[in-house]
Amino acid sequence: MRYSAAFTLTVFLVAGSAAYAQKSEVGKRAANQQQRIAQGVKSGSLTARGTANLENKEAAINHEVKADRSANGGKLTSQEKQTVNRQQNRVSKQIYTDKHNAATQNYGHSEVGQRQTNQQQRIGNGIASGKLNAGQAARLENNEAGLNQEVRADRQANGGKLTTGEKQQVNQQQNGLSGQIYNAKH
Questions:
Q1: Fewest Cβ atoms nearer than 10 Å: which of 12, 56, 66, 158?
Q2: Exposure pattern of 56-92 as b/e (b: 16+ CB <10 Å)?
Q3: How many helices (H) and strands (E) would you count in the chain?
């Protein structure tokens, strides 16, 4: 059975993230910003490191909202709403800045590069569908960024190429990351 994106997002907001009520402005903003991040991941305009940074900030806001609502019988005070709005405005500006700066995620056409691109697409799809919350996405993106850094360093040390042993090691690490993505989404 296939569900619409709106239905999936509503289920995510109700079941997957108790921090937000289904129709609250805070919840709508959070969902919108997650969609913007997902689009940036899919298009390559956000790097893994940049996405992890944004997702960590989103997760912190989500955690704060959840704690505030727990302390206030499920509602946010007007002062808390204003605070969350300011925080969401800052993250929104950072999303825009990060998506429009010169840093892009481009892995090339090698087997390693294609796999990295595929895994970024899977993370982006998980964010867009609501299967990955901000904390999960941040952890996955941090792991991806670490592997990307390792591949860059290995290539730099070897004149732009990976040795056979390095390719095997990267493949094993990508298998592990692929499993992490699957587990987080399911």
A1: 158
A2: bbbbebbeebeebbeeeeeebeeebbebbeebbeebe
A3: 7, 0
Look up residue 20 and give its DSSP letter.
S
Joined tokens for residue 173: 């690490």
60: tokens are 């912190």
Q: Are 76 and 102 in contact (CB under 8 A)?
A: no
- Domain residues for the domain of 77 are 5-185
Q: Tens of pLDDT along 20-36?
A: 444 678 888 888 888 88
In the 8-state DSSP scheme, what is residue 72?
T
Torsional class of 96: left (φ above 0), alpha (ψ -120 to 50), beta (otherwise)? alpha
Predicted confidence band at 92 (pLDDT cuts at 50, 70, 90)?
Answer: very high
Q: Does the pLDDT of residue 3 top 70, yes or no?
A: no
Residues with Cβ within 8 Å of residue 180, at least 6 apart in sequence? 139, 140, 143
The number of folded domains in the chain is 1
CA-nearest of 55, 76, 91, 69 to 18 is: 69
Instruction: State the pTM of this model.
Output: 0.62
pLDDT at 124 over 90: no
